[in-house]
Structures are given as structure tokens and as C-alpha cells.
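Teaching note: in complex prediction, the entire set of molecules is handled at once rather than each chain in isolation. The prompt given to students was simply: 'Predict the structure of this complex.' The entities are:
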Amino acid sequence: MLVERDDLNLMLAEVGRFARERVAVATARPEAPLDGAAFELLSREAAELGILSTSAGEGGFGIWERIDQAESMAFNLGALRQLGRANAGVAFAWHRIALARSVAEQLALALDAPSVLGTTFVSTGHYGLARTSAARWLKGSVLDDDEVTLLADWLDRKSHATTVVAPRAWQALLWPVWSDGRIAWQLAHRDELEVQPCRAQHGLDELSAFLVRDVSSATGITLLDEGACRLTFGRALKMDMMGLLAIAAGALDRGQELAAGFSAIRRQGGKLIGAHAAVQQMLGEIEVARQGAEVALASLARPIDEIDAGSVAAMRIGTHALLCDAANQVMQVHGGIGYMREAGPEKLVRDQNMLKLQAGGTREAQAFLAGWIGDFA
Amino acid sequence: MSVPTHLGGHLPAEHRLSPQRQYRELPMIGRALSDYPVKDLWETDFARLPAPLARQRRRARAFAERFIAPVADELDLAAHLPPGQCHPIAMDVLREAGRQGWLSYFLPRPLGSMPWRTLPYPPIWQCSLIVEEFSRACGGLMLLLSAHHLGAMPLLLAGNVGQMLRHLVPVYRSCERGEPHLVAFAITEPGAGSDAEDGHGAALYSPGVVARPTSGGWLLNGRKCYISGGDLAKSATVFAALQGEGMESWTCFYVDCTAPGFKVARNELKMGMRASGAAELEFTDLFVPHNRIVGGLRRGWAINRATLNASRIPVAAMAVGFARAATEAALEFARRYTLGGKALIHYQDVQLHLATMVAETRAMRSLVWQEARSAWQPRQLNASLCKFHATDRAQRVCEMAMDLLADHGGLHEQRVEKIFRDVRLTRIFEGTNQINRLSMMEDWQVQLLDADQPMGV
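The expected output is the structure of the full assembly:
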């Protein structure tokens, strides 16, 4: 089923209402993260509303359910942005759940309704973006032995533990693995994996961090033909990066609201702080970042196969940096109270950092870009 | 496991084209001018320090590594405590720090613990060296140990000899006995963050804490907020306006925190530096006798600003400690973590990234030492510049460390995320970095406005 342009705003308004009335309300106290039971309840509600699709091939409008149409992509990104505005942790968890479902469907893997909500996703290897190699493999370059070795190591889930940020009770994981000289996919159940819970991570407090290693005898691996391998991995990587960007943009929307609101009530030097150039400068920087994200997301609202992976990586590098700086300015506008957990800005800063660090982070995205646009062995 | 002979992309140090090897083979004068020992960078900097300060720097590092670093994680992750309660581990650190003289080093022996040989050098320099070492180990514990010196600073800057002997020396003696007597510095009010740190703002601010005259002294009423160490302090230097007057009447009162009318209303839940409390203090007809007025009536504003001038260089030193900790954590990760069969440090882009972090950190330290070494009367311009620049750059270094760790950068186990949370406060407290930029310009204005003055930067 196609999304009509006229329906798009109505659908996004519906997601926005749910994000405001359910997600934002349930997570209203930044210092008291949502517990596991409350997260599961919200997830079921999101599934009932169709924001998260739990069944295959029904042609609904869940996040990442349709990726072949501009309006659908606008919905995916817009919905994640609305959810990110309400709570970045919840939005991130649902983004990864929806990605797992979408990729599983492309792989013709059967996930029943309960297992969809319990399945999380990782789009990259154990560290970074495999320097230039993943990009070069994606675009079909002939790789030398070192590059093949690097890719095999990057996706070696047995030798290296992979960082997974997910709901505490996740049950299964879909991730890319190296098999038979190409990128394949493994759907692994939690009990097949060595899962080491980590201490409280930097941000996305609603979720937990784990170090995960595959200890199975390579079960559940789906290997597609060469072209399909590239297509599926390329799509998954782009969707993951775009989703992170959309969530981060939404989180900053909320941050901007906080900064503008505070500067309109707080007085210093005999006037509202918003009347001081020092604060105006920071509010301006926040708006620059917001608009940068807006433009980036608008340019990505196209059928997934028309989107250039290099463009997504480049936008990710530039936009996440801007959004992180802007989040810091939100905190700075608040002064001392911005550092306190009850206020909100400090969580925004931590969440923005976390979003930037997921899917390989942004530092190696530069090498990815070099591999994508370069022509070298 | 064999040690590689060289980093990726470089020749081994013993290669015939290695300059290090060839310097050794130059004629005597050439060797004297070019051959250098390859030392640890931290060690190298001792050449720039007078011996007495060098000893303090080495002692501080030893203390930080033995008593602070091992408990940093546990205190960072510990449950938030209600006002007045101190985590037993933090108390152990406080006791040991007191016994070793880290809570009393602004006066020489026998009044305090400052080694006599450090007397020819500005105490701010010594303090900066110590603060860097403590910050590197744990921001929260560093603040717990350092906020005390900030609280005591008004007594040092403006207290008369009698007050020093009557108030400060017993505080120091108690600390040295292993019975921590912390002093807090209380300027910030719920309605005045920056207004308590900036003259232009203060001129228009109606003070929130007011002192009313009474028989034998003053009664304080009002609230102070975000007071570092205020939850555990036994004494505090509290700044209050005199009844019916404005900020120009600000007066520093040395308050007994056990006196009736003093209450710790709440302890903030902070992003970082969690081993140290940030308290809201409430005063209800809190009696302060005349002899506890520090520096005289209506001298508070000057004492406050002088205290901030003295403290902002050590805040910059905190930034150095955090940048150093982040850089060391990133280096350690890059040496240990492998991708494609080799450690990350062998990759050229990783080397570029680390080189920038090291350069940033050392540039910050150079700035701090440059300002601290002559900070007998720390100038507002220099202190503010040092603070805002170092803390801004230090956060950037911490971000670079997180970026280098990528997917692992957000894990508490890797340490960098805590360092980021800790460093973030340094851009806000002691005046936000925006206020510090303006403070620098305020101090410079006489010269800037005089068209006949030569303008050197």
C-alpha cells in the first residue's frame, strides 16, 4: 500500500500525538528512566497503533515497513523525529526493532509478533565502519587480501565482542556477519549468544548496553547472492544512519524548546537572558543545527535505493557534530540547572553523544566516505 | 607476545633513516644540540618546574593513583545520597587526604601543610598541579577535595591574622588529624547564577540572601544553591547583602553549618562529578557574630571576585586533568583494541587523531602553567581567559576520545564517558564560559577605551 502525500501529514500527526501523550508523558522525568515493564507496555501500544509493525507483508505503515517510496521514507524519518523529540532512548529502541523487522522481511526470515518486539538490530561490525573496506565492498570494488581480512575481522562475532544498546529484555539479535566472502546476516537468539551486561552507559538511559559475542556454531545465517547481499547491507546501513539522524534531530527539537522556554523566563543582569547577545548567539547556533538537520532529512525522503550511501555518511558526520554542539548550547543556556538531571538538557547532551557513537560512530565515517568516492586499491 | 618494532607507517627507531638513531652519531656539539632523551611526556614537564613544586606534583599523582582512582567508578555509580550523608568510601578518601595534607596546603607548616620550600611560588601554581592530578583520577573526588579550598579562600584573601588563627588554622588541624572539616563557598542564589559573578549583572540584581543586624551580630535569611561540598561542609563562607542595601553591600560571613537556622535543603542529582555534592542551603535567622565577618562589611563583592580570580586558573587545571585522562584512555584503547588483526594505533588516521589530542592537552597545560607561575595577584583577564579556553578545549578532547572509541565510547567501562560528564561542569561553574569571556573584557576595558594606549595581545 502506498502512502499518499495528503495522508502523510495526518499519519505524522497521529504519531506526534502518541509521542506527546504517551511517550513524553511516560518519560517526563529525565532523572527517572522508564523501567522494562513500562517500556514493553509502550511498545505494545505502538504496535497496536501500527507505528511498529509486528507482522510480515500486510502492507501497513509501521516505521521502516515501506522504504521504496518518497512519502513512506518521509513518514519513517518524520515518525522517528517525533519519537526522538519525546524520548531518544525509546525512539532508538523502536528504530532498531523496526529495522530488524524490515531486514528480516527482506531476507524472508519469519518473525512472529512477539519476537518482532524482542528482536534488536546491529548494522555494523565490532568497531567503526571497517575503514574504507565496507564502502568499497558495497560499491562492488575488487578488494585486496588485506581488505577482505579486515572485513572478515570487522564482522567476526566470535572473536570480538560487539556493543549492543537495546531494551533490557531483548530476546534476539539480527546482525551482519562475514560468510563465504561476503556480508551475510545472522538472526541469533539471546541464549545462543554470550551476553555481558555493561554498567550504566553514557546515555539513552531507558536502554542497557551489552557486550555480545556469538558462541553458537554459526546457526541462523542467511546468505544471499552477491548482488542481494550488497543491496540488503547497503539498505540496512543507510536506514540505520538515517534513523539515528532523525532521532537526534527530534531530540534537538525538544532541546530547542527547552532553551527557548528557559531564556524567556530566566532573568540575569536585570533582563531576560534571551535579551543578552551571549544567549542569542547560542540560540542561533541551536537553530542552525536544527535547520541543518531539517535539510538533511528532507533530502533523504526518497526511495531507499535512490539514496547514495556516501551522502548519508557525509550528512551523518556533519549533522551529528552540529546536533551535539547544539545540545551543549542548550545546556549552556540553562547554566547550572542544565547540569542537573531533573532539568533535561544534560540528558539531551548524553543522548546526542550516544546517537553519534552508534552504527560505527562518525569518525570512521570519513574513511567510509573515502572508500565510497575514492578509486584506489 | 612480541613487541612490534615500529608503528604502522613509520620506520623503526633503530632504522638507518631514523633521526633518533642518527642524532646519537652526530659530532659532539651537534649531538649536544639535537640528541634528546625519549621520556614520558608527563615526566618531561618536570624540567619546567621548580623542585619543590615537582615534589608536590609527584606526591599528588601518587595519592590520586592510590586513593582516588580505585574508587572513582564506584562513587560515580553510587546511589544518590540525601543531604548530609557521605558515602563511606568518599569519607575514607577525605580522611586520608586530610592526613596527607591535601586539605590544608594553602598555609605553610605549622599552620597548614604547605612545604616551606614551595613558599617562593604562587600557591595557585601548586594548587593547579595538584588539581590536575586529582582530576585525572576522578572529577567528583577532585571537586570534593578542591571546593574546600575555594571555601577557605576568602579567609586567606581577606581574613585578618586573628581570623586565620581562630578559624582557618583549626580547620586545617582538624583535617590533618583525619577529621575532615570542609569549608564551602556560597555565592550562587536561585535567582542569581551569573549575577553573582558579573558586575554588570550584580548592579541590577536584588540580593536573595540578606543579613539583618541583631545584638552581637547578624541574622542571615535566604537560600544559596549549587554549592559544591555544601552538603558536608562544617563551615561556609556565605555572601549576603545587608538589609535594605544592594549587591554593593555584599559581605562575607564565615558561617558555622551546625548552628541553628542552617539547613541543607537538598542535594542535586548531577550529570557528573557525582562524588561531590551540590547543595541548596537554606538560612533561617541564622546568627553570625560580628567576629565572623570576613574582610569587613561591604567587602564581599571584592572578596568574591578575588576568590574567583584565584580559583579560575585551578579550574583550567581541572580541564587539563580531564583532557589528559581522556587522552590516556584513548591511547590505551588504541594500543589494545585490534581491527583487521592489528592494534588501532597502527592506523594513520588514529595516529593523527591521538596526536591532536595530545597537542591540545599539552597546550592547555602550558597555558595553565604560564598563568599560574606568576599568579601572585591573579589578574581577572588572565584567569578568565585561561578558564574558558582550557575548559572548552578539554571538552573537545573528551569528545575526540569518545569518537575514537566509536561504538565503545559510550560504555562506562571505557572511562571516557565519565570524563566527559565531569569535564562538562567546568564550562558552567565558576562563571559560565560566556561570563568568563565577558569578565575578561571587563577587566581589559580601561585599556581598550583609551585610544592613546598601545594595544598589545
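Point out the following to students. Chain A touches chain B through 57 residues (CB under 8 Å). The mean pLDDT of chain A is 95.
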